[in-house]
Design a protein that fits this description.
Elements (H helix, E strand, L loop, with lengths): L2 H8 L2 H14 L9 H25 L3 H25 L5 H12 L3 H14 L7 H9 L1 H13 L1 E2 L2 E2 L4 H10 L1 H28 L3 H19 L7 H26 L3 H12 L5 H9 L5 H31 L2
Antiparallel strand pairs: 1-2
Helix pairs in contact: 1-15, 2-11, 3-10, 3-11, 4-5, 4-7, 4-8, 4-12, 5-8, 5-15, 6-13, 6-15, 7-10, 7-13, 9-14, 11-15, 12-13, 12-15, 13-15
Length: 324
Amino acid sequence: MDASLIISNILNPPILFFFLGMTAVFVKSDLEIPAPVPKLLSLYLLLAIGFKGGVELIKSGITQEVVLTLLAAMLMACFVPIYTFFILKLRLDTYDAAAIAATYGSISAVTFITASAFLTQLGIAFDGYMVAALALMESPAIIVGLILVNLFTVDQGKPRETAWSEVLQEAFLNSSVFLLVGSLVIGVLTGERGWKVLEPFTQGMFYGVLTFFLLDMGLVAAQRIKDLQKTGFFLISFAILIPILNATIGLLIARFIGMSQGNALLFAVLCASASYIAVPAAIRMTVPEANPSLYVSTALAVTFPFNIIVGIPLYLYGINLLWR
């Protein structure tokens, strides 16, 4: 692997600010970002990436590649939690295995956005319709995870009961999914005219907001590291090896479909990332028996830093080999 790819990624300002946030925790600095601010920043990033994706989608149109990509995205969102569940069941109970499997079946929008910035820095083109794949992969894993819990647990001799209306509400109408899909639709409806109106907001401020958000993510990730003591070697290994395996499967699918290199990287990142916002919120509400320190710390303190520091350049290296 070309080490220059990793160095180039690490020396990207948003990534360096992520390290700065982690360093602040390690040296016991009193640096902190007030709670409402990170939420606002995440909403902005979802709005900006969704709106741009909608504008680009209307430019490209609904082609065979678009349809195949979106179908592949939904397939991976359902397949990953199923196969990882049975791996996790080797060492964990049903509740924790299903919670972690759902987490890894879903996606991290910030990892996707970071990969987009990485491609832009390298001058590698990608299509806006990949945002639609992002939106479609957020929710299915939650539903699959709940189905697995219902299939493999029995409460007092009876099948476990789940309030499916609440599950579907959280899966499809949580703030992240709703804003992302809504922004995508608005981008489609307004097209190039809307892009010109909002470009100073959605594009001019984008990298600054991403940098500030990753500073906060560095703080949060470092604070979660202590939770890894509870996970053991098995889950730490899982949190690194499973993303690589999922990315490899994603790249093979991307090569088969005929995606461009930029789209293939984004698809691999979607397959390899793990949710630490939407899915944990849904799981905490619907599967209270699962231990949050397991499914949150593995996704946020291991997989997220691994992907944005090493994973993204590693997956691009794989693309360079497969597309050669």
